[in-house]
Design brief:
The protein has 332 residues and is α+β, with helices and mostly antiparallel strands. The chain folds into 2 domains: 113 residues, NADH Oxidase (3-Layer(aba) Sandwich); 171 residues, NADH Oxidase (3-Layer(aba) Sandwich). It is 35% helix and 18% strand. The chain contains 9 helices and 11 strands. A 5-stranded mixed sheet has the order 3-4-2-1-11, with helices on one face. A 4-stranded antiparallel sheet has the order 5-8-10-9, sandwiched between helices. Helix 2 packs across helix 7, helix 3 crosses helix 7 and helix 5 packs antiparallel against helix 9. The longest helix is centred in the first third of the chain and has 20 residues. InterPro entries: Nitroreductase-like (IPR000415), Nitroreductase/BluB (IPR050627). This is Nitroreductase family protein.
């Protein structure tokens, strides 16, 4: 058994291990996995890991906090799946800037069917960069995704055809701005196109088709330039479901909340047989993020752009072992 894992509150050692595995299954920019966990006798602490921040793509650590929010949502759901009630304190100590949340496992209460369904979706969720089928996502499922975001005090805007056209132009503008930045390119090359035995970064096997001029949306080449997947003509679905997920403020607290909203949307999609991927360039470049905010009416802060649809199965990306991300305070 991992020496860094101890019983926490009402959770046994084995249960703590399982909820930590669930937490680390969250998505993160370039699969950097920018989190650390500390187990105390009373709580599981979630910390940001600034050593895994992407200086070029994410200089203000906004996407790092989003990823940690996604991990926090997974942690909450996994604790509920064991019949415990998570008591979450966000940013509990100002003097510890990396500490984003402390989660206590309180009184026992059986999980609801909806909670169990979302918890079961955690290991099934994948970032699917492949083309989706042409089947449209039904309106009722789109509404379920909106409700999932709202349940975590976020919002989800489904873009119409004219808005998608604007977003397409913004994605090309952002993509070119990043390619013109040597620091971004070097960072990108470092984290993508990795071999199967590496435990972080994006493996080449999980990349999508080679980006081509006819694609409506600019997609990144995660293969490290080694993708062999090419499709004649238009690679991707003609009527994609493109959603912008965001927050009502742009503070660190709001970004952490948006990460939880993002993950609840992704898990709701997974539980309903949908696949998803990210179109991150637009929100990573300040100018295009500002233009996207204007497109949405200026009152809301876009945090991430999602592409959702019906896809074929794809492999999971690797995760670092728990001993690399977990420490413990043992009972004296």
């Amino acid at each position: 058994m991992n020496a860094s894992i101890t019983a926490v509150g009402s959770l046994t050692v084995d249960e703590v291990r399982e909820v930590l595995i669930a937490a680390t299954a969250a998505p993160s920019l370039h699969n950097t996995q920018p989190w650390r966990f500390r187990c105390t006798p009373n709580a599981i602490e979630l910390h940001a890991d600034p050593d895994r921040a992407l200086k070029a793509a994410d200089p203000d650590h906004r996407e790092l906090v989003l990823a940690c929010g996604a991990a926090l949502l997974n942690l909450r759901l996994a604790i509920r799946s064991f019949g415990a009630v998570p008591d979450v304190r966000q940013f509990p100590e100002h003097e510890r800037p990396t500490l984003l949340a402390a989660v206590r496992a309180c009184a026992r209460r059986p999980a609801t069917p909806a909670e169990r369904e979302l918890a079961a979706a955690i290991p099934k969720r994948r970032t699917n960069r492949k083309p989706f089928r042409e089947d449209l996502v039904p309106t009722v499922l789109q509404e379920h995704l909106r409700q999932a975001a709202e349940a975590e005090r976020g919002w989800l805007a489904v873009l119409d055809r004219s808005q998608r056209s604007v977003l397409s132009a913004l994605s090309r503008k952002a993509h070119q701005a990043q390619l013109d930045d040597p620091e971004f390119v070097a960072e990108w090359q470092h984290w993508t196109g990795r071999s199967d035995h590496e435990r972080d970064g994006v493996p080449a096997r999980t990349s999508g088709p080679t980006p081509e001029p006819q694609d409506e949306f600019v997609v990144r080449d995660f293969s490290g330039g080694n993708s062999r997947t090419r499709v004649a003509g238009k690679d991707f679905e003609p009527e994609p479901l493109i959603c912008v997920l965001g927050s009502f403020q742009d503070s660190r607290h709001a970004q952490l909340q948006a990460g939880m909203a993002m993950q609840r949307v992704l898990l709701t999609a997974t539980a309903n047989g949908l696949a998803s991927s990210f179109l991150s360039q637009v929100v990573e470049v300040p100018d295009t993020r500002r233009e996207l905010r204007e497109l949405l009416g200026c009152g809301l802060w876009p945090q991430i752009v999602l592409r959702i649809g019906y896809g074929s199965p794809v492999p999971a990306t690797p995760r670092r072992p728990l001993e690399d991300v977990v420490t413990a305070e043992h009972r004296g």
